[in-house]
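Sample pair:
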Amino acid sequence: MAGEERLKTLGDDSAPGAYSAPARSALDFAEEEPGAAAGPGPLSGRLTRVSTWHGADPNDTGEHVTSVKCHRSAKEYYTVIQNVKKAYQIQEFGEFQEYNDDIEYIMDALQPTNSVSTRCLSATRLAGKCMAAAFRMHLRAHGTVTRFFAALADAPSDPSLSLCTSAVMFILSEDQLNMDLDKSSLELMLSLLDSDATAPSPESAESNGELCKNRAKVRELCAQLQRQGQAKQLNLDTITAGHLSMETLLSLTSQRAGAWFKEELRALGGVDRLMGTVSDSLRCLRQTDELRRQRDTIARVSRCLRVVENVTSRNEENQRHVLQCGGGAGLATLSELFQLAERELADCTPADCEEADGAARVLLEMTDTLMKVLVNLSAASAPGLFAAILHAVLRLPDRLPEHRQFDLLLLSMYLLMNVTESSAENRRRLVAAAAPPRPGRIIEVSTGSAVSELLQMFYRLVALASEVETHTDRILDGSVPAAPAPGAHADSGPQPDAGEVTATALIQKAGHHMEKTVIAAYIGVLVGHLAMDNMEFESLVRAQLKDGRFTDVVEVLHKLLSFMDLTNTGRPETLHEMRIMRRIIDFMTRADNPAGGPAGTGAGGALSSDLAGVLDMSL
């Protein structure tokens, strides 16, 4: 019969097979006991080998197919399941569902319709869940954080709820990744800063008991964070909603919170809060003879200044706002703080600044951040600031470790260039200023004018850069071997390739050479501002130069300008600096060659109003 299959068992291959029903799958169960077993063994009588031929005529030999069938009674518990998921898929689905169930449960309990105790319990549970990185990643991936804060918008009205809410914010802010924050969440954070004023009175024993219980839970969570190496700056004895909210605010920067952060922080009063904290801390620092004893206060000021420096960078509205804080006392506060820090660092030794977590090191880091803030605000000046900057340029680097001198000297030079570029009065003060006395002398006698000592520093840096350049050339020529890396020993393992050692040495030499060239070039920019502004100042500067010519200054400025051409990314601040340098180079070149035009006048004269502005830290 066409289209049917002919079957025969393994026990009787020669016997003619009977016609059967249409072919089944190899996994089908046999409805009846097989005629012959597959062979001796434990499966004898259970398995049947079935041969089939496919063809139009069953009498003709067609395609031969062999399959093995098992009777249903032999595997009573055998079940075929289709579309089975992989193990990792099941695990992922289970974790996702668990996280979602926890989030929905917590979200329902945080709603304002519930009692305060229920909401506090749910908030502390949320804070505990946020201790796990996987849970934080789930919140961030699905944008759930802002939903929690929206449900807790009324938290400042209750001290217990505000404490638990600030704990959630603080734990989330300790994450290394961006914290999910929007305008309403930032507004809630700033509102929590004042929540300590709503603390319950001693008469309300029930409220105090609830607050103490929640404070104990929050303290335990914060202690767990510290055991993990985080939140080291937090004092567990002063756990309050305002304290945790301020710590959260200090951990934020515009990079972590978004570009809108700068505008909203000013509009919602966050900048005023930060400057108020700096002002209050300054009053505490005035009351001690040695700032290094106030390590915690200095560290807190440093963290406030990091946020202020971030929000004032390339933001003129925030810069003007900081200058107007406290009735226009913002710059005076920062200037006084810089003078106190600069005097304290002058009494330190390089070894003091090397101590890990030492008070001197914390003070140095705070001073670096403070100078960055002043660079952003240096279009204005304050009493005593100019003298402190001059002292920081000429004397303070000698009191620091060698690897920290360049950073401080670079920031100090930026400050000095900015305050002299934008103010003719400061240029006159610089020309008339005497060099600060050197420390360690019984009788403090000035060593000369400040301009003279700046130019001495210029020639000293040029000579050191020339020595580094000569040594680099000798390394390339092979006449001088490249120095091995510090701490390398012959028996410390496989030796690096000679080419790798040479390349590393050349990179280090190039870094030292560039540092000295940058500082020398900025001194050249500074004297260029003086010389272009006034013919009398030009004569005073020439008297301090070798052969009375600007040749060495122009050469160093050309080197820095070439470097900036190579590394320029099109930033407006960098282009502004390069324009100023070209004008100074053009002026000095024509001043040394009067035939090209009168010195100090024409295109090489004082900076025009469209180019006036402060230098930015683009290097």
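Residues 21 and 546 are 113 Å apart (CA to CA).
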